[in-house]
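FW: tagging you since you asked about this chain on Friday. Here's the raw sequence from the shared folder, copied in full. Didn't touch anything.
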Amino acid sequence: MPTPTRVFAQVAARHGGVNPTDMEAVREWYENALQSLSREQIEAVLSELLSHEGAEAGPEPPRHYPEPAPPPTLDESPPVGEPSLATLLHEIVRRLRPLRRG
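HL: got it, structure written out here
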């Protein structure tokens, strides 16, 4: 099992002073601030993360999801073309129907 998300948050709090309940701040710390640490500090972070690999997931910190963008209206949506294979099969079936009746 992978390292639980809560461990990533705890490690970011310990090594970077990040609020472990702010998952956006935790993500940003790993993406931006971690690389500015010394080699020894980075190795300590990685070692701590790896030492918790496969740990019980337990309660995870609350996740933050961006507000969804509103879906486009039908007027704003581009027209969808009919699939060519479906059109071809429909035309073949339409042509065969009169032959079956007769």
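FW: The mean pLDDT is 81.
HL: agreed, and The first helix runs from residue 5 to 16.
FW: great, closing this out.
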